[in-house]
Amino acid sequence: MSNESYSTISDPALLSPDVSRSNLWRLTLAQALAGANSVVVFATGAIVGSMLAPSPLLATLPISIFVVGMAVCVFPAGELARKYGRKAAFIAGSVAGVLTGLLAMAAMFTGLFWLFCLSTLLGGAYAAVVLSFRFAVTDGLPPEKRPQALSLVMAGGIVAGVIGPQLVTQTMYLWPEKMFAATFLAQAVVAVISGVILYGVQSPAVKEQHGGGRPLMEIALQPRFISAVVCGAASYMIMNFLMTAAPLAMHMHGHSHESSNLGIQWHVIAMYTPSFFTGKLIARFGAVRISAIGIVLTGISAAVGLLGVDVNHFWWLLILLGIGWNFGFLGASALVLECHKPEEKNRVQSLNDFIIFGLMAIGSFSSGGLLSAYGWQMVLWVSFVPLVLAAVALSAGKVAKLKA
């Protein structure tokens, strides 16, 4: 059954409609608030890095460390959820989110670059837990309702796209002598509120046991899973690659912080607004087709960036990049749900996210160096390589499915 979809296999325990609706709204609202923490890091990370780092080449290191935090914490968060339930992972993530803001604020007052990097590492751990919301909302739901529930939770990111940049814009000068310090304090408060909301989430009683299901390698070698991972990794890697470099590139080309914040705001809104209908599109046209559209849109966004360095070029690049990420990543996530049985979900979902964030870290580490050494144009040209690989993987997966 390695090549067969598991979308027709129901979980042993289904939640009641009332509990499922409560979970959906709680996770959607938490996505909006907790997602704002990540937006704050992306909007400020490279700029604060350039202020505190001993070398310009290290300006984007805090964001790269944020991505590393996501990668290294995926498996611990999944293990915590497997042993003690999703709620335990949510609480641990919320604590990391609070510490992210407090340590970043302390870094601004002390001028310690390593302390700011530590804060973004914890921010990455928080983000790894937040991204599990998309899978958590599908727990206890019948298979036919999962893609739309996943999509609706991700739609909470629309509010994050407003809260995050506005949090930065409205607070970054509150303490004039310590720019962004008040922003990071507000970031910690938002994480506390999100944690309170998450405390009410209920999960099915069924837990995954050690050794439950097939060997992980057998699952990972499914053509469908490979397609999902490659497409998800390319979508997220390029989104992070360009979003990390864009604020600093705008600063280098003489654009204001406010213009940069607004660009990030529209980017994040574009990332999540399609989620209101992405799930329905996946149900109608299939996850592979929607993922492919996302890859194409991401390529178009990079092409727009190559046309010029005016504010409008950056803004349109970021908007198209956000839409492309939504189609590519949600399509890939829906494919992952077809690759595992209920008892395999935490291991398979953690493996998927670990691979994605691990590859994403490579892109994040390289973007700052490429931007400093070779300029914005080179960053854009390099972004096409993973997109080509994703297109090949999707095509190969589709051919393998037809032969199966």
Automatic annotation (TrEMBL):
Name of the featured protein: MFS transporter
Transmembrane regions listed in the UniProt entry: 29-51, 57-77, 89-107, 113-137, 149-168, 180-201, 221-243, 263-283, 290-309, 315-339, 351-374, 380-400
Domain Major facilitator superfamily (MFS) profile: 188-404
This protein's UniProt keywords: Membrane, Transmembrane, Transmembrane helix
PROSITE patterns: MFS
Family matches, as InterPro entries: MFS, MFS_dom, MFS_trans_sf
A Pfam family: MFS_1
Keyword Transmembrane among record annotations: yes
Top-rank taxon, per record: Bacteria
